[in-house]
């Protein structure tokens, strides 16, 4: 069963819930979701570095970052993370990332997020979402090289799963580590 979130947009003017949502939340007629992802001014936190990952962002039980090293995976485990999803391609990494994550006691998955001229690959996004659904209720670290693709994936998730408009989703993604203007443009264009 696909993991369902109920998105609640709160905060002093951070997001106008009426304009952020394009309609009712999906699955409104189904039972209550297992988890609620609250997105408000204070729900996205910068935690600082975990090993070589210069900046780790926390959103509920999710953590987004650039590439951690063995020390970073150990810090993730110490924070209760049990799952790592690496969205980098295998050719991007020249060392044993899986071994480092598993050495810290973490379940490790490599599901590359492909980016093309028309945006983020929907098949890649679907596979990442499926992995997250498999680990519902667990603390999950999703990482790429810099944190940009992770934040772009999250923006896409906010649009697709929560019907947030692309501009509002990109605004949140910027707070969660999206610094690449070209990825922000691709996310927006993907949903125009």
Task: Report on this structure.
With 192 residues, this protein is an alpha/beta fold. It has one domain (43-190): Protein-Tyrosine Phosphatase, Chain A. 35% of the residues lie in helices and 24% in strands. The chain has seven helices and ten strands. The protein has helices at residues 17-20, 70-78, 97-103, 122-134, 148-162, 166-175, 181-190, and strands spanning 5-9, 35-39, 44-50, 53-59, 62-65, 81-86, 107-110, 115-116, 119-120, 139-143. The strands form three sheets. Strands 3-4-5-10-6-7 form a six-stranded mixed sheet, sandwiched between helices. The chain has a two-stranded parallel ribbon with strand order 1-2. The chain has a two-stranded antiparallel sheet with strand order 8-9. Helix 5 packs antiparallel against helix 6 and helix 6 (166-175) runs antiparallel to helix 7. The model is unreliable at 1-38 (pLDDT under 50).
